[in-house]
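During the no-cost extension, the postdoctoral fellow (Dr. R.K.) reprocessed legacy sequence entries with the updated structure-token encoder. One reprocessed record is reproduced below for audit purposes.
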Amino acid sequence: MRTLVRTLRTTIGRHDDAAWVHPAPFGEREPIPTLSNDLLDATGVVGLRPPRTTGDSHLLRPLTHLIHGPVRHIVIDDASTLPTTALTELHELAVLAAAQLWLLIDVADRPSSRGTGLTRDAHAADVLDWATSTAHLTHPDDLARWWATRTPANPTCPPSPPRWWHTPLTEAAPLPTACDDHTEAGRVACLLAKLRRALTTGDATPTAARARLTDYTNHPDTTVTDRWHLTAAGRDLYTPGLDALRRTHPDAEDTTLADIPHDGSHITLRGHDIPVHQDHQPALARLRTSRHLAGCLPHEPVAGLFDELPGYPDTHPPGPRPRPLGPLPQLHPPAPS
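Re-encoded structure tokens follow.
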């Protein structure tokens, strides 16, 4: 099993649309908050600051990034350490995100049952029963062969040397340019693609990756667009989304879910469609999806967080009421493309 895992991590590290998750031990704690942080780290959403001590009590935050991100394969190492309730949550997450879930289970292992309320043998049998009835079982050789023969999505994107992730990026050193596969997406997209591969192979840790993203943000050659993409790819969904709304129109904070399409390409304000700058669209799309997953209805406000009430259709919570919309400036329809 150890040889298989080492081979798989090297092989899967060729693909930037895959995320390798090694679940952290949760002991007597709830597994979902820990698993939420693990999923965010594995998909490259390490953030620009150390994460909170505990994660969300749900998987909606990593689900939002999976829906709007390039990751299409999630590999869970030591899946037998997770209770079947967590495996069910992961299965639902993969279905909603249109991603493929790979669970590595050592049938000869009797994992610890701490936090499951079961004995070691009962927990192992419970995991195998869940996998047999829910998943498609694949022989390890077939699994390794499939990944070895799969064509990478971005074949000309070279990996960064392992030492690069642990060497401070000085202001005098130039920022690496985007590879040929990410010329249009920008160097931040190229950096995040290499980051996911380095996390899969073990060449980088979430802490080292966070320091590298911070170096990028503070580098004098980093453009405003680069910083916006770095912020939009972070763990904070609320602040970048609200900033995108404010930069689109001063009264756009009061828009509802129905006023914003899934891709965040424009907002509808009093019957007028206002285009959103392409650099702001990812952040707005993530905010809109997060509110939709939180149970908001189309007529409810888009400004909010996962842990807040889904919305207030008739009354507003205590505090200042939303300011009324001012007169809409004269809008000119965009030229046909």
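The first helix runs from residue 2 to 12. The beta strands are 18-21, 73-76, 100-103, 266-269, 272-275. The remaining legacy entries will be reprocessed before the final report is submitted.
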